[in-house]
């Protein structure tokens, strides 16, 4: 049976769109986008979900523990198998990972372990990469664990940093060249049961 996927969002939702488009092309093998849950009622991602006919929900505001409890309850009601954080900017507590062990994926816009951790999200990541002067950056899809941005890495892809980059131009290049490709790929691998977590390492199994 197809795995039911919930996508957690907070903003524009271009990574959600990449998943919607991949599903349209039949590239989310054995996966079905079943729900979009947003931390904000204003997130444009909700509009993208609506247009794609995917049910959208707004999470209640509150402290991290209360938000996580509401989130887990909703995920269970919806019979979700895989949780995907796609630009989800809200802190959650360990109850989520206990309810969904090795079944929460996140996309981060750098090559972890560079430019990640608490407070390092969105455009800040690219500001830090430019300030450091790196020549390549990229994106990482990883399993989410209790430690911020430190769970087992599923896929990574690099993109060049160019001399005249601004945080915005670098963000766009990393989205286009890395994020929008990696996230659907990782989700599809998960849904085919092809990701095997061995300690910090994720082994990618061949298709049957
Ligand atoms: C993406 O670049 C994503 O990697 C990043 O926020 C952006 C969301 O864009 N996530 C993080 O920084 C998480 N630490 P989107 O809403 O257009 O997908």
List keywords for this structure.
about 210 residues; alpha/beta; Rossmann fold; seven-stranded mixed β-sheet; two-stranded antiparallel sheet; about 35% helix; binds glycinamide ribonucleotide
Question: Can you characterise this structure?
Answer:
- The chain has 208 residues and is of the alpha/beta class.
- The protein has one domain (3-204): Formyl transferase, N-terminal domain (Rossmann fold), CATH 3.40.50.
- The chain has six helices and nine strands, in the order E-H-E-H-E-H-E-H-E-H-E-E-H-E-E.
- It has helices at 14-24, 44-51, 64-77, 95-99, 123-132, 167-191, and strands at residues 3-9, 31-38, 56-58, 82-85, 104-108, 136-143, 153-160, 195-198, 201-204.
- It has a seven-stranded mixed β-sheet with strand order 3-2-1-4-5-6-7, covered by helices on one side. A two-stranded antiparallel sheet has the order 8-9.
- A hairpin with a 2-residue loop joins strand 8 and strand 9.
- Helix 1 (14-24) crosses helix 6 and helix 5 (123-132) crosses helix 6 (167-191).
- It is globular and about 50 Å long.
- 40% of the residues are buried.
- The model has no long low-confidence stretch (mean pLDDT 97).
- Bound molecules: glycinamide ribonucleotide.
- Glycinamide ribonucleotide binds at residues 11-15, 86-87, 107-109, 121-122, 125, 175, 179.
